[in-house]
Amino acid sequence: MKTPNGYEIIQLFEQFAPKHLAMEGDKIGLQIGTLNKPIHRMMITLDVLEHVVDEAIEHEIDLIIAHHPPIFRPLKHIVTDQPYGRMIEKCIKHNIAIYAAHTNLDIAKGGVNDWLAEALQLQNVDVLVPTYEEPLKKLVVYVPRTHADAVRKAIGDAGAGHIGNYSHCTFNSEGMGTFLPEEGANPFIGQQGKLETVEEVRIETIVPARVQRKVIQAMLQAHPYEEVAYDVYPLDNKGTTYGLGRIGTLSEEMTLQQFAQHVKTSLRVPTVRVVGELTSRVRKVAVIGGDGNKYIHQAKMSGADVYVTGDLYYHVAHDALMLGLNVVDPGHHVEKVMKEGVANLLKTMCAQQKFDIDIYVSQANTEPFTFI
User: Fold this and answer.
1) Class of CATH domain 6-105+336-361
2) Which residues are annotated as a binding site for a divalent metal cation?
3) How do residues 88-119 score in pLDDT, each as one tens digit?
4) Please, where in the chain does CATH 3.30.70.120 lie?
5) pLDDT (tens digit, 9 = 90+) per residue, 142-188?
6) Given this model, what pLDDT does residue 120 score?
7) What contacts 362, CB < 8 A, 6 or more positions away?
8) Percent of the chain with pLDDT over 70
9) Binding of a divalent metal cation: at which residues (predicted)?
10) I want to staple 276 with a disulfide (CB 3.0 to 4.6 A). Which of 23, 261, 271, 326 is the partner?
11) CB-CB contact of 201 with 195 (8 Å)
12) What per-residue confidence (pLDDT) applies to 187?
């Protein structure tokens, strides 16, 4: 077991919720402090407020991972006798780093919106609002037959060859490779000044652009040749689609009133706001955690019977009525599902890396509203 530093923790986490998934202008990443230090205790929270930082101090936390960035707008001043400035001062004094994962965590596969869809027991879940299609590359490499299996395994293990639910997908064709080692070469096969002919395998596979460097490094390490012949081609077809929100179906149809109660129970909220006729029938459900006002038309066009999102505006509710779209608003705070979700994720990832670290889920209540 080893104590990780902050960079190692965040590098792990960003494999799950990479920064490039975030919406333009989102304020994600390290916001306060440094990652260049050992991390013994880490805390997961939805919001960073002064009483949350006090909780972190009490539990001797080194790193806070938050969903909502505490610094979202440019700072004009930090006044330490006011709550906001005092919060920042406490973090700095107690060497607490704060890292924010916002829309990248919303968009990530298995992230906030998937946790909400799972809590609502949705089936056949898909992305509601596509925001990013992963570019794909075609990798072609020429390998002596004796090492084809090793190279195929290396590039597959590094992330190449994923098509749907299949991994390590390649196409292989055999042929003859020729080369003439010149002065200064140290050939695996043959000798300087003599033209060599070798039975080789042409291995082709598909590679997500984000892992291209990793795949090529793995290929080069497994390949026996001093100079490896390979090609990388851009592809017009796209890889995995990422986006905000999810859409899926309930196991059985129910009334809007029954569904509203289902939302309350599943998301553990004391009350919900409902737009639509309570007796209307619903089965297809769209959901976006947090404020999803701007995506009401996408929810309607997706064929959803009901849209679950927070912070619904008065006039947007009127728009929903005119569109004939039912809406259930459980509030913004339902994104609290990220606390247990991120904690469980990081516990698993850290255990796999044999990291010696305690992961604590904040117990501080950051819901600003009291329901009477």
Assistant:
1) alpha beta
2) 67-68, 106, 332, 335
3) 999 999 999 999 999 999 999 999 999 999 99
4) 133-240
5) 999 999 999 999 999 999 999 988 999 999 999 999 988 888 888 88
6) 98
7) 43, 44, 45, 46, 52, 55, 56, 339
8) 100
9) 67-68, 106, 332, 335
10) 326
11) no
12) 85
Tokens of 189: 């096969």
Residues 33-52 have a mean pLDDT of 97
CATH superfamily for domain 112-130+242-334: NIF3 (NGG1p interacting factor 3)-like (3.40.1390.30)
User: Residues within the annotated binding site?
Assistant: 67-68, 106, 332, 335
Residue 153, phi then psi, degrees to nearest 5: -65, -45
Contacts of 10 (CB under 8 A, 6+ apart): 30, 35, 99
What b/e sequence results for 143-165 when a residue is b if at least 16 CB atoms lie within 10 Å of its CB, and e otherwise? bbeebbeebbebbbebbbbbeee
CB 298 within 8 A of CB 261: no
| The pair of three-digit structure tokens given for residue 47, joined into one six-digit string | 């919001």
Return all residues near 154 (Cβ < 8 A) that are at least 6 apart: 218, 219, 221, 222
- Compute the radius of gyration of the chain from its Cα atoms: 26
Cα separation of 27 and 9, whole Å?
Answer: 19
Residues in the chain: 372
What class, spelled out in words, does domain 133-240 have in CATH?
alpha beta
User: Counting beta carbons within 10 angstroms of the beta carbon of residue 299, is it exposed (0 to 12), middle (13 to 18) or buried (19 or more)?
Assistant: buried
State the pLDDT confidence band at 189, using cuts at 50, 70 and 90: confident
DSSP state of 210: G
